[in-house]
Amino acid sequence: MQLTWSHAVLNVKDAPKMLDFYTNTLGFSISDRGPIAEDGPDIIFLSQNHNEHHQLALVATREDEGPSNALNHMAFRVQSFEDLQTLQSRLEALEQKFLPLSHGNTLSFYFSDPEGNGLEVFWDTPWHVSQPSGAVWDNQMDEAAALAWVEETFGQDPQFGRREESAQEFVNRTR
After folding, report:
1. What is the per-residue pLDDT across 117-169, written as a single tens digit (0 to 9) for each?
2. Span 72-175: which CATH code?
3. Which of 27, 71, 112, 157 sits in a 20 to 30 Å window from 119, CA-based?
4. 67 with 13: CB under 8 angstroms?
């Protein structure tokens, strides 16, 4: 059995504020919405993929004031370094704090949504690095400089190598 990612449902306090963040900052679209049950709260379904009814859903059922603490973070992959730069511009426009952290195999931004749920948006590098690994990276670098920095920073890792080579090793492992 192989599981594939489908969706996450967040219990939220301020649905309009969260909806604004996930649609305008992260680029999700509303795919559906309606009450969960008669006289129940609305569930708002969001997706960025027309083949997925929803990748995320919001339900306005939280009553506590503090940040959510059951979830460490949700991670989203982007397809290009330019996508990371676009997100950086959006976060900076919101004066949103974020941590640029690289795990060697990714260049990531860590930040929180308006209700304190942890988010990671990352771009895959071409390398495999044993985990856990991490170093703060200079998000002002261009793509070529960032990739050179990753190779220099993580290249001494004994398992450092091209991603496709490590993927084949994973497939060849016995259970």
Report:
1. 899 999 999 998 888 889 999 999 999 999 999 999 999 988 888 887 766 56
2. 3.30.720.110
3. 157
4. no
